[in-house]
Amino acid sequence: MISDITGLHHVTSLASDAQTNNDFFTKTLGLRRIKKTVNFDAPEVYHLYYGDETGTPGTVMTYFPFPGARRGRAGTGEVGTTVFSVPEGALPYWRERLSKAGVANLSEDSRFGAARLRFSGPDGDGFALTEVASDNRAPWTAGGVPEDVAIRGFHSTDMRLRDEAATAELLRFMGYEEMDRTGAVTRFHVPGGNDANVIDLTRIDAPFGDQGAGSVHHVAFAVENRDKQKVVRKALLDTGYQVTPVIDRDYFYAIYFRTPGGVLFEIATNEPGFDRDEDTAHLGEALKLPSQHEHLRAALESRYLAPIHD
C-alpha cells in the first residue's frame, strides 16, 4: 500500500472563455489567480491557476480555457462535483453572494451531516461549498470575501462511476480509508492527510460523460517531493497501472494514469511551488511560458492569448 499521498494537490478542468473563467474564480469566489501560463501541449491556450495566497497544494483549481469550446455532457467516469471548504456558518453569506452574482443552480443539501451549497460554474461546472469546523488553512482575503467566510481550499471531489468497486480498491491502495457510506455514496479519506483529503465515490447508472467545457480533465494528488513520487510510481507500475514518465510542469512534477472507473489521476509534487519564477506578492500577474515555448511569446500574445483584465 502507498503511504506517501496526503490528499488533493489540484483539480484541472476545461472552460470556454479565459476572461469569464478568471472573473468567476477571482471576483465571484474570491480566490487568487496564482499563475497565468499556457497548456504545455497546446500553447495557444491559457492554463490558469487559482488558489490561496501561495497556491498551497490542496487549494489549487486550474483551467484550460479553449475559446468557444462546446460544453461537456455529464455522465459517469468523471468528477461530477468539486467541493470547497468554508467555515461553519458561512453558507448564508455565500448563498446571498452567489445569488447576487447570478450564479446558476443554487441549492442546499447536506452530506454526511455537513451542510452544503451547490452551484454551477460558467460552463455548467459542478461545485459545492461545504461547512467544515476544523479547517485552519488561511484563506486569501484580498479577493473581496471576508476572512471568516472565505474559501479555505478543497474539501473533496465527488466521482460519478457506474461501478465504484475497482476505484475504491485503488483508493485503498493509495492510502485512503473508507470513512462512511450512505446510499450510493461512499466516502474515503487519508487519515492525517492535508485538509483536502476526502474523496466521494457515487454510483450512478448513466452513460460515460463526454468531456468539454465545464468538465474536470483530471484530479491531482499530492506527494511531498520527487523521491516520494518515484516510490508511488513504482508501486503503481508494480500493480499493473500504465503510468507516464515523470513530467516537469515547472511548478510541480507530474505522473498520470487512468483509473478503472475512467477518471484521469495525476500524482503531483509539492515542490518546487508557484513562487519559483514570481515573487509571492506578484503571483499570477505576468504571462509565464514554459522554456520550450518562450520563442513563441510574440505570436502567442498577438494572435492567440487575448489579454485577461483583472
Automatic annotation (TrEMBL):
Pfam families, sorted: Glyoxalase
Segments crossing the lipid bilayer: none
PROSITE patterns referenced in this protein's UniProt entry, alphabetically: VOC
Sequence ranges assigned to domain VOC in this UniProt record: 7-132, 153-270
SUPFAM superfamilies reported in the protein's UniProt record: Glyoxalase/Bleomycin resistance protein/Dihydroxybiphenyl dioxygenase
Protein name: Glyoxalase family protein
Organism: Roseivivax lentus
